Amino acid sequence: MASQRAGGGAMKRSENVGLIVMGGAAFAATFAAGMTYFAWQKPSHAGQPQQAAAQTCTTRPDGTQSCQATQRGFTYYLFPTWGSSTNAGSAQTGRTASAALTNNARASTPAVSPSGTTRGGFGGTAQSGSLRVSAGG
Amino acid sequence: MQRITCEERPDWKDKAAAAGFRFHTIAGERYWDERAYYAFTLKEIEDDLEAPTAELDAMCRELVARAVEDERMLKVLRIPERFWTFVAASWKRGDPSLYGRFDLSYDGQGPAKLLEYNADTPTSVFETGAFQWMWLQDAIANNTVPRDADQYNSLHEQLIAGWREIGKGGHLHLAGALADPEDGGTISYLEDTARQGGLTTTALNMDDIGRTPKGAFVDLQDRPIELLFKLYPWEWMFREQFGAYLAGSATRWLEPPWKAILSNKGILPLLWAMYPRHPNLLPAHFDDDPKAADLGNSFVRKPLYSREGANVAIVVAGKAVDQDEGPYGAEGFVRQAVATLPRHDGNYAAIGSWIAAGKPCGVSVREDLSPITKNTSRFLPHAIVG
Predict the structure, then answer these.
(1) Quick check: ipTM above 0.90?
(2) I want to staple A37 with a disulfide (CB 3.0 to 4.6 A). Which of A14, A74, A104, B149 is the partner?
(3) Which whole-number Å values give the CA distances from A22 to A25, B84, B174, B183, in the listed order?
(4) Per-residue pLDDT of chain B (386 residues; tens, 9 = 90+)
């Protein structure tokens, strides 16, 4: 229920903004995972024959193994050289439009796990060199 | 509407860190900026921003309703034909939307003008819904703003309400570029609001999404993804390997596929054609439309698909006086009449007007020294005063 402003009328602001997850610990965990990804280079899949991804396996109590791909995709946070506003006649050459719809973002071959699950079929555009990582606007 | 300089809280960075807001500074440049705030009157908020946002949303939904029945509209929006049925089916099912952000030019003197609609992957949601609210609480306590100051901001509650309605207590997956500070932070905040809305959650990178031999999209534990929030645009997904399997999956998407129609600057000329001379619209035409000449030789040229101001050019008397480089534009451009952002103390200010769970519910203000708003444009808080 909206509380009242001084002088009448409902207030237009949030009553209470309580954050559960967005504490420093949760955020630090997010960034810790991100920094791990930065530590090694994602191998290029272009031109490589399709092959099973490297795996991390754990042994269940019944002796069977549970495996999942360890070659996770990750993204570089690229600072675009074209990020600043320029005046007419700038010497900076605009990159050829890597078309949002027409450019082929299918160069990378999705990885396949032993279960037959294929991964890496989304996310390729963000990892291309011509676009900023941030997908938002 | 006024820009009021003020003292920043001496411990604002500590407070940001405590709240998990790590991208308050980007590459050494200030992003969150509380050296000033924007003051609005309640009348400005209600009459000039809140009500028009509801109207613009209704107009956009009418545009979608027409587009899904008119291939000519889908064609000019450059939506790939193989996805027309997928997008139309989403609308006809009534797939729900969580949120969106209308970007407006507004100076407090006349009606706000729609610059574009971030309908699919709007960001700055944490700064808007949470951190500027926290600023207000402190600003009232330390007399930076009057004690009866308010803020147009119920985005946080509307997000929770939206999750509750859409998710109905089930499990939500959220996907994006988790390692990116801004995208990862945005996803983390939305995950927080989803949990408060009663959902259980799993976050993963976009390229961790798997597809089983039977065609189900799954997470890293091979758990089926029934409801997915993606901070990743439809136009990118359409061109990627798994795009071919979208129509055959049982996954529900947020934002829904029909939002692909609206997250496209081609809606600007389409809206102008549907609602000519509407007070909240600017004249706009497709770049290759002969009617574009009606705008004369001063206009803003925008790619159909772009983000964060990339490849936008302001043309005055036939010359590009300001432009942002980038990789977009292959699908074509639109031209929109110039509505230069208001300038306060040398800063151009753009309004982001948010809608969540179907209700207009807040604004964000971005500033830049250039008239083109970019990802690095600073975020300033606001208050309702008077």
Answers:
(1) yes
(2) A74
(3) 8, 38, 15, 14
(4) 999 999 999 999 999 999 989 889 988 999 999 999 999 999 999 999 999 999 999 999 999 999 999 999 999 999 999 999 999 999 999 999 999 999 999 999 999 999 999 999 999 999 999 999 999 999 999 999 999 999 999 999 999 999 999 999 999 999 999 998 889 999 999 999 999 999 999 999 999 999 999 999 999 999 999 999 999 999 999 999 999 999 999 999 999 999 999 999 999 999 999 999 999 999 999 999 999 999 999 999 999 987 777 788 888 888 888 777 777 778 899 999 999 899 999 999 999 999 999 999 999 999 999 887 877 799 999 999 97
Q: Does B119 touch chain A (CB under 8 A)?
A: no
* The residue type at A130: S
Q: Amino acid identity, residue B106?
A: Y
**Which of A30, A102, A115 to mutate against chain B (most B CBs within 10 Å)?**
A30
* DSSP secondary structure, A19-86, as one string: -SS-SHHHHHHHHHHHHHHHTSPPPP-TTPPP-BPPEEEEE-TTS-EEEEE--------PPPTT-SEE
H-helix or E-strand containing A90? Answer: none
Q: B43 exposed, middle or buried (CB, 10 Å; 0-12, 13-18, 19+)?
A: exposed
CA dist., res. A73 & res. B90, Å (int): 29
Number of other residues whose CB lies within 10 A of the CB of residue A73:
24
Interface check for A122 against chain B (CB to CB < 8 A): the answer is yes
Measure CA of the first residue to CA of the last residue in chain B; give whole Å. 11
Nearest CA in chain B to A66: B221
- From A38, A26, A74, A72, select the one nearest B187 (Cα to Cα): A26
CA distances from B375 to A50, B40, B345, B355 (A): 37, 24, 21, 20
Q: For tokens 């944490």, name the residue.
A: B126
Q: What is the sign, positive or negative, of the torsion defined by CA atoms of B236, B105, B381, B6?
A: positive
Question: Any CB–CB contact under 8 A between B8 and chain A?
Answer: no
Hey, how many other C-beta atoms are within 10 angstroms of the C-beta on B169? 10
The CA distance from B95 to B97, in Å, is 7
